[in-house]
Amino acid sequence: MYLSKIELTNYRNYSKLRVKLDPNINIFIGNNAQGKTNILESIYVLALTKSHRYGVENNLIRKEMLACRIKGTIKEEKKIKDLQFVLTNKSEKKVMVNDKEVKKISDYIFNMKVIMFCPDDLEMIKGSPAFRRNFMNIEISQLFQFYAQYLNEYNKILKNRNEYLKLLNMNQYTDLRYLEILNDKLVEKAVFVYTCRKRYMDFIGAIIGDIYEKISGLSGLTVRYENNVDLVSYDEDEIRTKFMEKLTKNQKREMLQGTTLYGPHRDDFTFFLVDDDLKVYGSEGQKRLAIIAFKLAEVQVFYQLLNTTPILLLDDIFSELDVKKRNRLIACLPSDIQIIITTTDLKNINRKLVEKAKVFVVDQGKITEKVGDNNGNGRKGRRNI
Ligand SMILES: Nc1ncnc2c1ncn2[C@@H]1O[C@H](COP(=O)(O)OP(=O)(O)O)[C@@H](O)[C@H]1O
Ligand SMILES: [Mg+2]
Hints:
The chain is of the alpha+beta class. The protein folds into two domains: 1-113 and 308-385, Rossmann fold, CATH 3.40.50; 129-306, RecF/RecN/SMC, N-terminal domain (Glutathione S-transferase Yfyf (Class Pi), Chain A, domain 2). It is 43% helix and 25% strand. Helix 6 packs across helix 7 and helix 6 packs across helix 11. The chain binds adenosine-5'-diphosphate and magnesium ion. The site of adenosine-5'-diphosphate has 14 residues, from helix 1. Residues 36-37, 316 line the site of magnesium ion.
């Protein structure tokens, strides 16, 4: 799938922008703080209705404006879809497919698939389990259609259950029937969440080692899905039984602490290089490459599970890699995929890639297409778009 055009209105530092994108390689070049990341972010928001920048939702609207709009056209084989995202300064969100409003965000986000690579990704190793769960949830909601909905329902029941556990704790209630009802509901939703997460992590786990070896030259990278119900299979009955056992066995402890101690809301995952936890023992470079390998593995998961190629958003990631690693990374990118890259300097990007690319210059929220020789040799020209 690819994004053929994007249109922004009052989005961050863009008042009005229209860009026609290449189905294959696109490069946005410009100095710092000109709006390169904002472009990639807007594409991400169009797909997922949220920014990839953790916790910055309120700044998406251009300063002093009342609302922002992102419009884009997605093409896949013969199918075309017009997507639209609107956010107001009262935090009202509206999403549309072919000009028809889609009420459930969880339905909407299944339309457009993106994978973002950005400098903040290091948080996937250095950051909190909550960061990794958030990441996992976003990715999986693009892969399994009902995941986001089940997860929302799980979280609602979890909230009720935690409130009830607190009540039980304070009032010394003896009637536990309501807790049992909540247990049944919680377990039912958790089974779905767990199976999706396990499938996703198993897919990644099966290929990440090979990809990492290709870009780093090192073997032995694995990723471990950690959950507190000891998941080993996809068997729903088995997962149901295991989780229910944890809840019943730990009921007293949970009442005492007034919170649910077991379940997908406590999940995490860890990167290992052979036996070493990368968070503790990995170098900065190893961590970066492990995350890149993870995302490249995701590309294959999209292909295997949905028979589609996601749109890759690469935010200034080449400058952090040496030439050898850059080239190895480029060699791992599928050739028939749309890639949108930002950089401050074309020299950071493999020449062959630049030659194939549509190149845009970003300057204070204005974009012009760079035509002619992209290598900085000979004649250069610019054309307004
Ligand atoms: N809501 C907003 N309204 C206006 N300008 C904004 C808003 N949010 C961010 N900006 C501006 O966007 C610029 C940063 O854009 P960004 O895409 O991160 O730059 P870069 O080209 O370095 O990736 C800054 O100049 C910042 O002031
Ligand atoms: Mg940037």
